[in-house]
Amino acid sequence: MTNLILFDNDRREQFLPLTFTRPTCELRVGILSIREKWELWLEGKASYITQEYLSKKYAIEIAEDNFVINGSVMPNEQLVRLIQQLEQNEALMKGEELIAVRLNQDQFEHLMENEDLDELIGYQLTETPVQQITQLPDIYKLNGDQIQSDFKKLTQFQKSKAIPEDVITDGAENIFIEDSAAIAKGVIINATEGPVYIGKSARIMEGCIIRGPFALCDAAVLKMGAKIYGGTTVGPYCKVGGEVNNSVLIAYSNKGHDGFLGNSVIGEWVNIGADSNNSNLKNNYTSVKLWNYPTKRFVDTGEQFCGLMMGDHSKCGINTMFNTGTVVGVHCNIFGEGFPRNFIPSFSWGGKNGFMSHKYEKAMETAKIMMARRDVTLIDEDLEIFRYIQEETAPFRS
Q1: CB hemisphere CA count around 228 (13 angstroms)
Q2: What CATH number did the domain enclosing 278 receive?
Q3: 128 and 152, same structural domain?
Q4: Is 179 found in the same domain as 301?
Q5: 47 closest CA partner among 58, 56, 37
Q6: Distances, alpha carbon 320 to alpha carbons 171, 247, 276, 351, in Å
Q7: Residue 312: strand, helix, or coil
Q8: Who's near 387: CB < 8 A, 6+ residues apart?
Q9: pLDDT tens by residue, 168-215
Q10: In the predicted model, is pLDDT for residue 113 greater than 90?
C-alpha cells in the first residue's frame, strides 16, 4: 500500500476556523475529504504533517518510500499520473509552491528538520491542471466540480441500487444509490445538471426536492420537504431540512428544520436552530468581505455570494439571523434576536447585544452530551486540542 503523507503549509491559516480542529486535507470538498480522495486515487494510506497541537490526533507515519502531497490540492487523472511517475527525490512544483515529492526515509527526515534535500529535482506543472483550495469560499465554489469528480471515481465499477418507482427523476443515469440507502415516496431528483450520490445507510424522507450535483454521504438524513440546490454536500451523519444551496456540511452536524443556508461551510458537531437563516448576497450586490485570521481583519473575497463559515461544535438558537459573510469560531453559542456580529471568536457566548467567554468546562460538557447521542466519545486528544484553541483565541474575545 502506498504511504501518503499530506502536509499543511502556511495556506492552512486561510481556512480557519475550520482548520483549528483538523489538517487542511480533512476538509470535505465534494463527496470525499481531500485525504480520502488521495487514498482512493493512489490506493494508499495517508498520515499528516500538521500543527504540533494537532499532531497527537493526526499523527505521521513514515515509511521507506513516501509520497508527500500538499493537503490543499485535489487529485485528477493527469496529476495522479505524474505523481505515480516520480522517482526518489523528484518533486512537482506550481511556481514556488510544492505540490508533491517522493522521498525515502532519510530524505524525509531531512525535510522535517528543514535541512537541504540531497539532489532534489523539481518539475514545474505548467500544463497540468491543479485544482486547489486557497481561501474559505473555494470549498463551496469547487464543491460541484468535486462532486462530479468523486462520483465518477466512486461509481465507475459499481452498480446503483434501483431507484424506487415512486421517485420522480430527470437524468436517472446520473443518480447513484448505495444498497443500504433508503428513499421515501414523493421525492423529486433532477440530475441533469450534475450527479446525485446517495451514500450508505443515508435516508431521504418524503417530499424532498433535490437538484444535482449533490452528495448525501453515509448515514446522513434529509428531513421531510427539504429543498436542496446544486453544489451541496451533506456530510456523514448530518441531518438537514429546509432550503440549502451550494453549501458543505462536513460531518455530524444538524440543520434539521426550515430556514435557508447558502454558500456556506459548516464544520462538525454544529447545530443550527429552527428557522435560522443566513444571507449570502448583499443588498447592494457588491463583493463580500470575510474575516481573515492571518491578517486579523476583514478581507474582500471577490465573491458576490458568500454566506456562513461555522467552526466545529458551535450552536445557534431558533430564528438566528446571520449576515452576509459571517465567520463563527469553535465552541460558540449564539442566541437572541437580530444580527450578531460578522466575526464571532471561538468560545463566545451571546448574540446581537454582545458576547462573553464560553467557559471551557461548560463547552466540553455540551460536546460530550451531543457526541454521546451519536455513540461517539470525546477523546483526550480532542480535549487537548480544544484547550489549545481556547487559549490561542483569547485575544480575539477581549
Answers
A1: 39
A2: 2.160.10.10
A3: no
A4: yes
A5: 58
A6: 36, 18, 5, 9
A7: coil
A8: 360
A9: 999 999 999 999 999 999 999 999 999 999 999 999 999 999 999 999
A10: no
Cβ partners under 8 Å of residue 23, min gap 6: 6, 8, 12, 35, 48, 50, 51, 54, 58, 71
Q: What is the dihedral of CA 324, 329, 331, 334, to 10 degrees?
A: -30
Q: Determine the pLDDT at residue 196.
A: 98
pTM score of the predicted model: 0.96
**Do residues 16 and 389 make contact, with C-beta atoms less than 8 angstroms apart?**
no
Asked if residue 341 and residue 224 are part of one domain, the reply reads: yes
Containing structural domain, residue 179: 138-397
Return the number of other C-beta atoms located less than 10 Å from residue 31's C-beta. 29
CA distance linking residue 236 with residue 156, whole number of Å: 21
CA distance 159 to 151: 12
pLDDT value of residue 105 = 86
Q: Which amino acid is at 245?
A: N
Domain final position from 83, 104, 134: 134
* Exposed e or buried b per residue across 196-229, where buried means at least 16 C-beta atoms within 10 angstroms of its C-beta: bbbbebbbbbebbbbbbbbbbbbbbbbbeebbbb
Query: For position 84, which CATH number holds?
Result: 3.90.550.10
Predicted confidence band of residue 115 (pLDDT cuts 50, 70, 90): low
Asked whether residue 70 falls in the same domain as residue 191, the answer is: no
Number of domains into which the chain is organized: 2
Q: In the chain, count H helices and then E strands.
A: 8, 37
- CB under 8 Å to 304, separation ≥6 — which residues? 281, 282, 285, 286, 287, 288
Q: Which of 44, 42, 29 is nearest to 74 (CA)?
A: 29
77 shares its domain with 21: yes
Of 112, 134, 156, the one marking the end of a domain is: 134
CA distances from 244 to 197, 377, 378 (A): 16, 29, 29
